[in-house]
Amino acid sequence: MPVAHPLGALDATRVPRFAGPGTFARIPRIDEVADYDIAVLGLPFDGAVSYRPGARFGPMGVRQASRNLRPRFHVEYDVAPLEMLQVVDAGDVACTPFSIDAALQQIGDHARDIVGDSNRRIVAIGGDHSVTYPMLREARRKHGPMALIHFDAHLDTWDTYFDAPTTHGTFLRRAFEEGLLTEERSMHLGIRGPIYDRMDLVDDARFGFKTLRAGDLDTVGLDGAADAMRQRVSDLPVYISIDIDVLDPAFAPGTGTPEMGGMTSRELLHLLRRLDGLNIIGADVVEVAPAYDHAEITSLAAATVAFDLITLMVKSPI
Amino acid sequence: MPVAHPLGALDATRVPRFAGPGTFARIPRIDEVADYDIAVLGLPFDGAVSYRPGARFGPMGVRQASRNLRPRFHVEYDVAPLEMLQVVDAGDVACTPFSIDAALQQIGDHARDIVGDSNRRIVAIGGDHSVTYPMLREARRKHGPMALIHFDAHLDTWDTYFDAPTTHGTFLRRAFEEGLLTEERSMHLGIRGPIYDRMDLVDDARFGFKTLRAGDLDTVGLDGAADAMRQRVSDLPVYISIDIDVLDPAFAPGTGTPEMGGMTSRELLHLLRRLDGLNIIGADVVEVAPAYDHAEITSLAAATVAFDLITLMVKSPI
Amino acid sequence: MPVAHPLGALDATRVPRFAGPGTFARIPRIDEVADYDIAVLGLPFDGAVSYRPGARFGPMGVRQASRNLRPRFHVEYDVAPLEMLQVVDAGDVACTPFSIDAALQQIGDHARDIVGDSNRRIVAIGGDHSVTYPMLREARRKHGPMALIHFDAHLDTWDTYFDAPTTHGTFLRRAFEEGLLTEERSMHLGIRGPIYDRMDLVDDARFGFKTLRAGDLDTVGLDGAADAMRQRVSDLPVYISIDIDVLDPAFAPGTGTPEMGGMTSRELLHLLRRLDGLNIIGADVVEVAPAYDHAEITSLAAATVAFDLITLMVKSPI
Amino acid sequence: MPVAHPLGALDATRVPRFAGPGTFARIPRIDEVADYDIAVLGLPFDGAVSYRPGARFGPMGVRQASRNLRPRFHVEYDVAPLEMLQVVDAGDVACTPFSIDAALQQIGDHARDIVGDSNRRIVAIGGDHSVTYPMLREARRKHGPMALIHFDAHLDTWDTYFDAPTTHGTFLRRAFEEGLLTEERSMHLGIRGPIYDRMDLVDDARFGFKTLRAGDLDTVGLDGAADAMRQRVSDLPVYISIDIDVLDPAFAPGTGTPEMGGMTSRELLHLLRRLDGLNIIGADVVEVAPAYDHAEITSLAAATVAFDLITLMVKSPI
Amino acid sequence: MPVAHPLGALDATRVPRFAGPGTFARIPRIDEVADYDIAVLGLPFDGAVSYRPGARFGPMGVRQASRNLRPRFHVEYDVAPLEMLQVVDAGDVACTPFSIDAALQQIGDHARDIVGDSNRRIVAIGGDHSVTYPMLREARRKHGPMALIHFDAHLDTWDTYFDAPTTHGTFLRRAFEEGLLTEERSMHLGIRGPIYDRMDLVDDARFGFKTLRAGDLDTVGLDGAADAMRQRVSDLPVYISIDIDVLDPAFAPGTGTPEMGGMTSRELLHLLRRLDGLNIIGADVVEVAPAYDHAEITSLAAATVAFDLITLMVKSPI
Amino acid sequence: MPVAHPLGALDATRVPRFAGPGTFARIPRIDEVADYDIAVLGLPFDGAVSYRPGARFGPMGVRQASRNLRPRFHVEYDVAPLEMLQVVDAGDVACTPFSIDAALQQIGDHARDIVGDSNRRIVAIGGDHSVTYPMLREARRKHGPMALIHFDAHLDTWDTYFDAPTTHGTFLRRAFEEGLLTEERSMHLGIRGPIYDRMDLVDDARFGFKTLRAGDLDTVGLDGAADAMRQRVSDLPVYISIDIDVLDPAFAPGTGTPEMGGMTSRELLHLLRRLDGLNIIGADVVEVAPAYDHAEITSLAAATVAFDLITLMVKSPI
Predict the structure, then answer these.
(1) Cβ contact B85:B39 at 8 Å
(2) Which of A28, D48, D143, F303 satisfies CB 3.0 to 4.6 Å to F66 for a cystine?
(3) Does residue B248 belong to the interface with chain C, where contact is any CB pair within 8 Å?
(4) Domain that holds residue D147
(5) What is the pLDDT of residue C282?
(6) CA of A303: how far to CAs of A127, A308, B247, F171, in Å?
(7) pLDDT, average across residues F134-141
């Protein structure tokens, strides 16, 4: 049952947006409310990246850019999300930068502490994409196998890299092998670029993913893509994971493995808004590496998307 | 009556574009000609911004980037604008950085000095968006109430902010209250993002604005948007105000309140070019904050747009 | 006859992409193989630019960004290009920075040394656009007059600039006068912006170019543009020259004469992929100026495009 | 009486420095402790600057860079400052960006609320230099007229600018006129560059300032400068105000009015450390404008200096 | 005879420094006064550089940064230079970017036009260092052979590079061969780094240069260096040429061939100020490449130095 | 016995420095010569950093900046180092980014392969500082325990961090525990800033380090520091390790844990040059993180220092 009178974001007419607390969109901290429905959780880990590191500063960068949001009334969704449910900033998971396995364990444990046996949901902010793995596990603990809507330039279903089973490019294969995902109900959107091996595509299909490549948007259109997503997911519990590199590097330069030819930010927002009403049990936005950003445009895109994910959750109560 | 033999821009085959005078597109200074038809006027004021300041350097940045223009023959408009009318760079208004009211007064006075009782028109370069307010007043003095085509990510019709009646987010409410705008003939294009209050939309409609949100472009298309603009304005005198943040941050990072999901630069140029032939009495491009720009892409976009505005004026003699 | 067992790119599962040799996409150096089919050749010359210099660092920048590529299996073309033909990095031409004529001569001589009387082809990486001139000459020596597909914001068919006959804005007029191009079979794509003189368009048409302006994409669509290219070229030998400024400055800020309103990177990739099967005898990507880039997005776009050009050549054996 | 067991900074062996709360140096928030001795207070106001704005983001930038500090044991001062007194982050004053007078009033009121009739002291983080004015007033309320050690490239004792009496370049004249400063006991350090008028020096001397210009360091040496400071102040209550532009632009590019030929960061730290034991009643570091910074070097310098100021206060209990 | 009542710089209390004309330090244009004593002249040529180009934008960058100067009363020199002599901004020489010889000829011709048979002097702003060559020639025409005080990281007396006799690294050998310099009376300051050949030092000494390497400052001290300069020059006519790369890259990143271990900006200013009273007949500051600058620190250093050069000239009337 | 006729660096009068192979200073690759004396080896690992990652791109960045060097005759050392011994670029160690232990093992193995039982020496380019650990081990294998000259802002003798025994802040404690270092003969230079615990200093002294803090340079002077180094080391075999953060952030912004108040680049070069003649058995420069650099100033500093280290080795044959 949602909180009756949620505590919303700081009033920008009283405290300028460039001042005041540094929580996501200046919403309350987790310790400022008695209970909450949705927690924004930072996952500052980037030990599993194969190219540019730096996503450990992602939560910090996204929170800072989120100061520019006006998180009261969301016109596209026709809702004031922070008046409907209690949303809080749960801070960061304090995970080691030195071990992939240990860090993902710490993230999973922390997520479990937040959710417990409640209906609380988490919008996670990465961190490299490996952090999605423990979040999927935690979601499965609560909701069973799920569909996954995966916005990304890359499949992330490769096998191993330097003998490491779980990296930001392999975690989805691990997730499939572990039974976290319902078969034939997940979807990649925005995939592009050459790959290491032709077999990668075969394997990926075997793991039950349908793929809409970035270039396909020019043929099926935004509505075609949106319809495909909704059909794929139907009324299953669904987790939404957004690697910010799904956007073209022009829109998201601040990321670890940029790939030419991606989505525009307007396309991504359009597709997200077509997920309205699905049964969303968890979500994240990952791979923001502020050291490569400029004028905070990547962090702002991620913050905007994170607020859309919150709004989508508000509109699909569980 | 236009000047018979206008003095055009410096010849790039004699003086390299990276050399020579720093006027807009290297056109003549106001004191180099006996009379003129169109004046480019810098409004270096940014005391009314709510987030990132820096638009005080906008006129300087836009002029510098305008060196890269080739302002002779405008293919899309099939005209050599600087051969048709005398266009000059009128320099900057010397306004105080310390008081919104005083600065806007100085801007209005300076604009009045330029126009007097002639048919001269001004293409202004901001500065934050509050500088449009005195320009609208001056246009009304000459032409009576007008239609407004307003490209922006934000409505700018909010009420007050920290007790200040006139800021870059509220000046259009003030303009409406003051009777500067013909009722039901103005239009916002490119609006997007969440807002402070659901009532903001209601108020905005009450002030006579029609709104085409950025995402609407994906449904009505460029032609639909252009037709809507032309219908809205018809043959009324019209002022065109372009907040550079109407562009997505990828295209215009150098601005004060960037908003994800905006127009592409090609869309903006397309829409502007569909205004050909309207009765344009004044225009501006504002909110360029060079400190957040890179490789001058924002300033170059604003300079390009300013040259289009000049060309539109040339094609609608008054 | 292609090499039987080409030596491919370094394995990213053994040597991280941020390590190892700095050749294009970590393919072999020219001296590591007995023979080869396609050579990537750096042309680090920028002495013929009219605005921002810096493309002398283009080959270095593009090679560095090409580390991020995964050049094994090219999904869009359904081919593993480096397994089909032997592709090598031929290094840079050591050309003087102090004389246009001498440098272009050195480039032409070096290209001739590479090709000789073999069927080897070159994908050149500029440098400013003047470097295309000696490459066209070398291509004509082998294949006779050719069609040209020219992606660019600018026509490059202007006459002279400061008495210099061959610059990055005039070389195509020189190429036409010299009989390098088959009449009426070449095409510009992505042209935009004002120009110096109305006659420039007349001259350009006289030189046998058909032009698809950037804004035309919004009316004819990607398929219309692709069809026009293929019809124009038919089965003629064709050279593909890509000035990276064909992209909008948001996608390619790191260039010498940026122009607002260009193509998106996805549009460029789409058009390139529609050239599949044409008789491609040479190609280049030019005008990358890393000093104006950020987060390597321009260099990465150029590297991606260069790999597509290689793949197109692989699919059109000569 | 200092707090018995102060709550220190977050343990960097448990929570990585790039994670966790965004308070200054990750010390406790003001609401997390019952009482405190020293408060770090953000003053995000930049409406009184004459050149580059942006210091409104100073408190945010300094806090972010302060994550990199290791604020346990201060070797140069041989003390663990956070174990001696309770230091807290008091957040930001919520002041209007639109009116100098109103904002300075809000800052003064907030400072008074913090200090009340206790012995609490404040280390303020600007903000432009005008914010020092209300802090001096508040210090005088408690301690009477004081000496001022003023590190700055500029005198800040000019009269008016655009009719505004209180700006970042004039506030010290106002402070003198108001009797906040003990006569003949204050000192400027680091002054340099040409000035508007020869009389500015005469006036400044009349207001009781002794000046050590940046270039004087090469003749009197660090020890000579330090001795001069200590003699000037003696055992008077002293306020230390550090405009970050006292550093050369190489060390502090992120500021509003940079001036060539300044101090090195090591010189500034050396001089600060020679203030050990003085009777310090208040302090600030101002004029950090992050938009002009790179790699956070200016913000890090300011954060380091702020921690030194805290340590100096700890060593001079009042 | 100096002008009786010189026209000074724009009043910063009436027109904010970020507004108004873009002349150097906002002094008058050359066409605004009847006659003048000192002309600031832009030499936007960079066709003779061996590494990073971009100094063609040097004059533009230095003028822009010079807005931040307060050019009234120069405390260190105890003089109001603009009240003593008429100083003007003479704009840029319109020289071709495509030919070293032609460009240097154009520069020399333009300088001669300015000076004629008057006593006017020029402070030139480069451009790469080759532009000093025609300025030395023009100075010799008027004053005969001269001493040269040369601040630089590099000797610039190398022989040829790619067969080009005159480049930014060889022009001083040419100047010596041509008899422009008095034998044994010139001096390099700030030289550092490895060189191409041991013989370079021998040759350089043969050309009559004395060298004070950057590291020597740590042994002879600033006063020792200043004394050496004054002794070397004595009462000869002297030209002062400052390659901004004499500063360490920390102080001047925006240059073409940076070299670790250079002077600090305070050291350079100190040495310049010790030239007070010498018989200065010409001066320049060169090699500012704004594309590599950040926060305008290099341009500001060059602008500050240029104003010191003007002041030095004012204090040594000829 | 050194190679008789070493192959030197590419001739910059034939191949411009911005062209040609990307080896360090354009020296030969390891496979281009039969044998060699000194190998430059890249160690692209940054998995052991506690704050900003990115040093995995250090070797790439340093090699790129090294193009600007003129590595023929080293004036300060009066030697042409590349004519005395054969120096090669040995490329990068291909180490995993995902495991500290595995990566350090790979680095050690690779170093052993290079050295074998020859007298070859290595100048390593990091990578984070943990990479020094296997290099010390390899040096001990050949030469027994050694003295260490350690330039750094931090002690790097902390114990553990998140349970990881070997990180960039702890490896020197491990090295001491393992007996790699001769007791009481090592020295830290440039240490500064607060620390985690007062005991850190006690421990560090126990491990046999003498410390010269950055601020001590202002009292003992450069000569005092140099004398202390030479006395400490005497004729022992010595390893020189340079963390680039020993420089102030103004000189080296591109690093992972910048610390205000460091050395200038001239001071560092001065101190290095005083090591001339010591018995240098190995050396490295580490912690260059190019993502935080600008204009390559940090990479250029590291490249310059690496060339000095090579020269020092050349002058101390073993």
Answers:
(1) no
(2) F303
(3) yes
(4) 24-314
(5) 98
(6) 14, 9, 18, 38
(7) 98
Interchain CB contacts (distance < 8 Å): A and F: 54
Q: What pLDDT does residue A300 have?
A: 98
What the block records as the tokens of C12 is: 């990213």
The secondary element (H helix, E strand) that includes residue C281 is strand C279-286
pLDDT tens sequence across A225-265:
999 999 999 999 999 999 999 999 999 999 999 999 999 99
Tell me the CATH number at C254: 3.40.800.10
Percent of chain D past pLDDT 90, that is, above it, reads: 88
Give me the interface pTM, i.e. the ipTM.
0.96
**pLDDT in the model for residue F318:** 79
User: Quick check: is E10 in a domain?
Assistant: no
Q: Which two tokens stand for residue A238?
A: 């669904």
- Rounded CA-CA distance C175/C173 in Å is 5
pLDDT for the residue numbered C247 = 98
CB proximity B297 to A under 8 Å: no
How many domains are there within chain E? 1
For chain C positions 62-101, those within 8 Å of chain A (CB to CB) are: 67-76, 80
Contacts of A52 in chain F (CB under 8 A): 54, 57, 291
Q: What pLDDT band is residue E199 in, cutting at 50, 70 and 90?
A: confident
Residue F276: CA count within 13 A, CB half-sphere: 12
State the chains in contact with F (3 or more Cβ–Cβ pairs under 8 Å). Answer: A, C, D, E
**CB burial of residue D307 (10 Å; 0-12, 13-18, 19+):** buried
* Nearest Cβ partner for F94 among C15, C42, C93: C15
Sign, Cα dihedral of E11, E15, E17, E23: negative
Q: How many CB pairs under 8 A join D and E?
A: 96
Give dist(CA C309, CA C304) in Å, integer: 9
**Interatomic CA distance for residues D47 and D54, integer angstroms:** 9
Q: How far off is chain E from B57, nearest CA to CA, in Å?
A: 6
pLDDT tens digits for range D213-263: 999 999 999 999 999 999 999 999 999 999 999 999 999 999 999 999 999
DSSP string, C103-116: HHHHHHHHHHHHHT
Q: Does E12 map to a domain?
A: no
CB contact, 8 Å: C297 with chain A?
Answer: yes
Q: Tokens for D20?
A: 């966790």
Pairwise CB contact (< 8 Å): F294 & D295: yes
Closest CA to C138 of C173, C171, C114, C102: C114
Beta F87-92 vs D237-243: how paired, if at all?
A: unpaired
CA angle E264, E267, E273 (to 5 degrees): 145
Please answer yes or no on whether C97 and F15 come within 8 Å at the CB atom: no
Instruction: Specify the pLDDT at position A3.
Output: 55
* Amino acid symbol at B99: S
Whether residue E106 is predicted with pLDDT greater than 70 in this model: the reply is yes
**Residue F226 domain-assigned (yes or no):** yes
- In our burial notation (b when 16+ CB lie closer than 10 A, e otherwise), range B63-93 reads bbbbbbbbbbbbbbbebbbbebbbbbbbbbb
Tokens matching residue C63 = 């090679």
Q: Does C103 touch chain A (CB under 8 A)?
A: no
Among candidates B14, B19, B22 on the partner chain, residue whose Cβ is nearest the Cβ of E44: B19
Best residue in F46, F163, F260, F298 to probe D by mutation, most D CBs within 10 Å? F260
Phi, psi of B239 (to 5 degrees): -110, 135
pLDDT digits (tens, 9 = 90+) for C256-300: 999 999 999 999 999 999 999 999 999 999 999 999 999 999 999
pLDDT tens digit sequence for B235-291: 999 999 999 999 999 999 999 999 999 999 999 999 999 999 999 999 999 999 999
Cα dist from D201 to D196, D206, E202, whole Å: 10, 9, 50
Whether the CB of A298 is below 8 Å from some CB of chain F: the reply is: no
